[in-house]
Every structure is written in C-alpha cells, then in structure tokens.
Amino acid sequence: MASVIPASNSSMRSDRNTYVGKRFVHVKNPYLDSMDEDILHHLDLGTKTHNLPAMFGDVKFVCVGGSPNRMKAFALFMHKELGLEEAEEDIKDICAGTDRYCMYKTGPVLTISHGMGIPSISITLHELIKHARCCDVTIIRIGTSGGIGIAPGTVIITDIAVDSFFKPRFEQVILDNIVTRSTELHKELSEELFNCSKEIPTFRTLIGHTMCTYDFYEGQGRLDGALCSFSREKKLHYLKRAYKAGVRNIEMESTVSAAMCGRCGLTPAVVCVTLLDRLHCDQINLPHDVLVEYQQRPQLLISNFIRWRLGLCD
Ligand SMILES: O=P(O)(O)O[C@@H]1C[C@H](O)[C@@H](CO)O1
Ligand SMILES: O=c1cc[nH]c(=O)[nH]1
C-alpha cells in the first residue's frame, strides 16, 4: 500500500460524530475507536497511510455501480459536467493498488465500483463508510437490471427495495443469527430524482419497487443457468406475482445498500436501467452500442440531479 502521510501522523484520528446540526455519516461499531490502525484491505487505503478525512471530507455525493469501466466513464463524465479545472489525465484511480474496486473523486462526487452482488457491495460499503467524516451525503447506486413488464431501456428509480419474497427487508446472517434490517429508501429523494428525469425526454423513467436477489440465474427465475429446477410456467407465475406486488426491476445490490446506508446516516437512492423484459426473455442480447447507450441513461439522470443540487442548472 502506498504511504502518502507519515505513519505517526495522528491528526486524522478526529472524533466521530462531530458535526452539529447536519446529517453526518456515523458508524455503529464501538471497536473501531480502539484500533491503532485500520487497513481497508479491499480499497488499498488505511488510517495510518492515508489522511482519509482530508481526502474525503468534502464528499457530498457517492455514486456506486458494478463495473469499473462504467464507473470510470461516469467519473470522467461528471468531471466534464461539473466544469472542473483539473485536467482529465489527472483524475486517477484512488484504489489503483488493488484490482478489487476502482474509485475516483471529481469535486464533491466520489465514484466507486462495487462488483456484483450483495457480498461485494457490502464490503465496499463497510470500508467506505467506517472512516467517512462527511455530512449530508447522498449515495446513489447507478446500475443495470432486468425489467418486469416494461420496455428495455426504461430507467427505474427505486421507491422500495424488496427481497425475493417481495418484502422490504435485508436479512444479514451475523454469527448464527439472522438479523433483519429495513430497506427503506428516501421518498423525497426518489421524487426529486423523478422530477429531474422529466427534463430528459429521450428515455422513459418510472418509480417502482426493485427486487434484490442473491443470484442472477435461478435466483432471478432464469431458465438459462447451469441449474434450473422449475418450469417456464412457474417462472412466469413468479414474475407476474412480483409485478403485481409493485416490482418493476430486478438487480442484486439494492437491499443491502439501502439497509447499510440508511443505518449509517447516508441518504440512499437506487437508479437502474432495464436491459430486457423478463416476461419475454432471460438473455441480454442487445447490440453493444445499444447496451452502452442504455447504461449511460442513469448516469445522465444522476448528472442532472447533482448539477441541480449544486445550483449549476440553468
Ligand atoms: O451495477 P450493475 O450493472 O453491476 O448491477 C447489476 C446487478 C449485478 O451486479 C449485475 C448482474 O449482471 O448487474
Ligand atoms: O436481468 C438482469 C440484468 C441486469 N442485472 C440483473 O441483476 N439482472
């Protein structure tokens, strides 16, 4: 791990929860304060080697998504949209010492890739949140998903993240207990995002429930995995029940993201484009250029939202 500040520097050990009158990021772990050093292994950062409060203290928006290339493209796009002076070549991957995740900072926007699935994003969020000394942070997952009963290319702003039983909960196994946490998202933020989407006439945006699964194949009722233990009829029956329960898309990170961020004082949102209609097919067979354009849709919406929040819109 690259050392950027002297190991003896103690100025970074600022007290937790020091912001008054603001919604600050807070951690719920009494053990962290007694640690002499904390190595954020998967981000290749650490409390003795990096001045984390100085690096991230001014962050107001955290944008996360699965793929490193997509998130790098988003960071470069935000850099342009915010009209920042720094040369594009100087925007470096903060986590370059590891190939697990990538991270870029452009003004108040931190962009991070989280890999695929609940365990992967959960590790990212633990390491991201536990030494964050920021306040009033909005965290938005910008992802892809499978739609239910809607045209591919539609962008869904999640109002409620639900599990495979259509329940708004995230079940975390802790030791040998199942701990259930709420997956409530921020209603006003979803509405604010939806209002921003009205300025973009080139694609459709909806608010709906998002189902989060532990798997892409059997877990999402696909018939094309290495294993399949149900019939086409059962699959369609399940997806139609999901639709009736308000689910409009399926992905793999929203419940844990809502549960963790909500508990730690970040305001979470989830905005995903749909790549297919699961009532019609299981395979994603879009031409490459269409896939790329679809993936840019949530990015465009979030860029508009951030510029609007920062007072940069006309
Ligand atoms: O952010 P991405 O596009 O990676 O999100 C969805 C959910 C899974 O991580 C992945 C499955 O293809 O795409
Ligand atoms: O069908 C899909 C497409 C993208 N991501 C998912 O999790 N499911």
Automatic annotation (TrEMBL):
* MF terms (GO), sorted A to Z: uridine phosphorylase activity
Key words of the record: Disulfide bond, Glycosyltransferase, Transferase
Q: Which InterPro entries match?
A: Nucleoside_phosphorylase_CS, Nucleoside_phosphorylase_d, Nucleoside_phosphorylase_sf, Uridine_phosphorylase_euk
- Assigned EC number: 2.4.2.3
One cellular component term (GO) for this entry is: cytosol
Tell me, what does this protein do in biology? Catalyzes the reversible phosphorylytic cleavage of uridine to uracil and ribose-1-phosphate which can then be utilized as carbon and energy sources or in the rescue of pyrimidine bases for nucleotide synthesis. Shows broad substrate specificity and can also accept deoxyuridine and other analogous compounds.
Subunit organization? Homodimer.
Sequence similarity: Belongs to the PNP/UDP phosphorylase family.
Q: Which NCBIfam families match?
A: euk_UDPppase
This chain's protein is named Uridine phosphorylase
Q: Which organism does this record belong to?
A: Piliocolobus tephrosceles (Ugandan red Colobus)
